[in-house]
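Quick illustration for those who missed Monday's session on complexes.
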Amino acid sequence: MHLKSIELQGFKSFIHKTKLEFGPGVSVIVGPNGSGKSNITDAIRWVLGEQSVKTLRGSKMEDVIFSGTKKRKPLGMAEVCLVLDNSDGFLPLEFNEVSIIRRTYRSGEGEYLINNAPCRLKDIHQLFQDTGMGTDGFSIISQGKVDEILSAKAEDRRSIIEETAGIVKYRNRKKEAARKLQDTEQSLDRIRDIIYELA
Ligand code: ATP
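Prediction with adenosine-5'-triphosphate bound:
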């Protein structure tokens, strides 16, 4: 799997529709300070479902929408479309190409689409879980992240290793199964009480 392209419109400083295409291998984005390089990594995080405004270097979610300049009015919507090459079947979808779209409006409404079909944020998270590319993944190493990992507590470092090893989904499934088991135990207790009362 590799990132084929990213298209931004109304996202942060990208007022006009802007498409960046990437080939396999290493790509480098260069530009002067403040030209929008980090905004591109923010866009990748955002389209993959990032919910933390702090991680996106803003103070509210609306900050991802182009906020206007002296000459240009603010826009009402931000949209990012990420296209991934999935010809190796790395993502569990039967498509050679997978597109993810996220839109958000100033009203606070928004939507996600996988290959143009509307979906939930949960579907995006599940699609990328344990691939190392989701919002909890380590495909984006921001400034200061290396120091943070080195000085992290042992448990936090363990969760990084677990995510990288791809076992988070099994941990989540175990948690879900334990919760269902507990619900079932409670239902059984209720049934036992009723049987006791009737006997
Ligand atoms: P550096 O090399 O200094 O790290 P950079 O190329 O990574 O810079 P970014 O941080 O991506 O630059 O871009 C910052 C620019 O994006 C600033 O000029 C800022 O005003 C602009 N910007 C951020 N959010 C918005 C927004 N919502 N609307 C318009 N412009 C925005």
